[in-house]
Amino acid sequence: MRFLAQKSTLRQTKSDAVAVFVLQNKRHFETQIQNLTKTLRLPIANIVKLERFAGKEGELVQLYTERKLAAPRLIIVGLGELEKLTLERMRCAAAAAAKKAEQLKAKSIAFNLPQIPSDGFRESVEDVAQAIVEGSVLSLYKFDKYLTEKKKKEGKLSYVSVFHPHRLVFQQIKSGVGMGRAVCEAVYHARDLENAPSNEIYPESLAAAARDAAAKYGFQTIVWDKKRIEREGFGGLLGVSSGSARPPVFIIMEYHGREDKVPPLVLIGKGITFDAGGISIKPSAGMAEMKMDMSGAAAVIGTMEVAARLKLPVNLVGLVPATENMPSGSALKPGDIVRHYGGKTSEVVDTDAEGRLILADALAYAAKYKPAAVVDLATLTGACVVALGHHATGMMGNDEELMGKLKRAGEKTYERVWQLPLFEEYEKQIKSDVADVKNLGGKWAGAITAALFLKKFVKDCKWVHLDIAGPAILDEDLPYTPKGGSGVGVRLVVELLRVWGALNGWQRHRKRMSSSSAEAGYLSEPWGRWKSETTEPVQCRGVRLSSSPPVP
Ligand code: BES
Ligand code: ZN
Ligand code: ZN
After folding, report:
1. Side-chain half-sphere of 98: how many Cα atoms within 13 Å?
2. What is the value of pTM for the model shown?
3. Pairing status of strand 108-112 against strand 473-474
């Protein structure tokens, strides 16, 4: 996909299709249709009437412009009522237009920045442009690399742009499109990793993907092999991997967005590249989707990519314990006891509750960084899908303020999170007679008992657990998320990082960036240990975090 900002009028904009947004409110609707009629000198009002188009959310009308515009096709998209307008509606409307344009065999689509009265809608031009890019591009995602027949090449839309003739507005659009591009490419990558079958994405190839991303976008990686994992005493990861022919890996990613010794935010992603359940084997129906049990890992890799590309002013560590969970003669068995990094033990009652076993090692290891906070993302429990379905991530943690930030980030990105309680009464469900904790909490409150298991491995630090099992793996299409792996978590955590960066010294960071004195490897162990593997950061469009004026 190519991403562009164009400084042009509706008439001048070059594209296979142009899309114009209109509001449903009568007064706005009529003026907008009149303006279009004037610009095009075509009987738009008649066409609109004929098609009974009223600007409602999701409605579309399409016409050929007969050389009245540089673009041959025009798509008018309804935004619904001004009072109900949100960035999410904008994403959905852009998605509908993009899909329509692709159906019409357009190779490119250009979106007119919507004309919205500033009294009713207070989002910035940057955010609106970003939302348009996200909605359109994310809706066009296809996992078609294994289709060898013509379907693959047929009618793909491959250019998306947002345009406005005014220079200052154009500058903001440019910035929003740059942000949207970084986010969409990371979400595409996360979706590709999720959807890839487990014979393509297994622990070592997942590590290779992280390494490639690091080299491309400018962060650092180190990958521990099985020997190192043994030396470090990651008993959970080793135990889960013991039934698999493929060796486990532990992936460490670092991005230094600040030159000072600011404690990093640590992201941890569950990297089960295939979850057969182990000896407590899953039923075969639906097992195939467990190739996506590394969605947490995909979200962490995607987030690292965006942070590095946009040079967000944060210090970030990404940790991914990765393994398959397979049954075999050497596999972990119910009743086994494993010793995690740091020494705590857990009793394995059910080998299918493997995510918590590998995350325990990573959570305990994260303490080494003296993190400002730890956020883990995991397709952890079916119970969370039962509770929240596919439209919300289960959120649990020990810090209300951080959870509040994630909640707001969820509302803005529409990757919504919903908090579940960690009442201490639930704890007795995971008490073991033979080890410090057991990995199964019984029938009830499975998402909560899983989180309480994780909590045992968090050392005096702010921590939030995101159970993404529902929204990560979709069984039907959503407006801009085709079924399959959704890439959930990337947009949510990037938004958290934006807020985090803005609160923690964006201004100072900008000053330093402009004097270009940034240097990697400045922090103490283990944060700065892998200086030698540093790759050159890739220059990308500058993105301003300062708030821009509302959409004119
Ligand atoms: N990876 C699964 C959870 C899952 C289920 C993710 C559905 C996405 C969709 C996890 O490892 C698992 O198997 N959990 C068990 C836990 C149980 C054995 C306590 C579950 O939820 O059934
Ligand atoms: Zn499992
Ligand atoms: Zn799993």
Report:
1. 29
2. 0.92
3. unpaired
Averaged pLDDT for residues 282-305 = 98
pLDDT of residue 120: 74
Q: Which two tokens stand for residue 371?
A: 């993190």
Ligand 2 centroid–CA 337 distance in Å is: 17
CB 351 within 8 A of CB 242: no
Pocket test for ligand 1, best of 381, 388, 473 (most atoms within 8 A of CB): 381
- Whole-number Å distance, alpha carbon 513 to ligand 3 midpoint, is 41
135 close to 90: Cβ distance less than 8 angstroms: yes
Contact 261, 194 (CB under 8 A): no
pLDDT band at 261 (very low <50, low <70, confident <90, very high): confident
Q: Which CATH class is domain 2-146+158-185+504-514?
A: alpha beta
Residue whose CA is closest, atom 7 of ligand 1? 382
Amino acid (one-letter) located at 309: R
Candidate from 212-216, 487-491, 543-547 with smallest mean pLDDT: 543-547
The atom of ligand 1 lying closest to the CA of 277 is 13
Pocket of ligand 1 (CB under 6 A): 275, 293, 350, 352-355, 379, 381-383, 385, 440, 446, 469, 473
What are the structural domain ranges in the chain? 2-146+158-185+504-514, 209-407+416-467
In words, the CATH class of domain 209-407+416-467 is alpha beta
> What SS3 state is found at 467?
strand
59 within 8 A of 80, measured Cβ to Cβ:
no
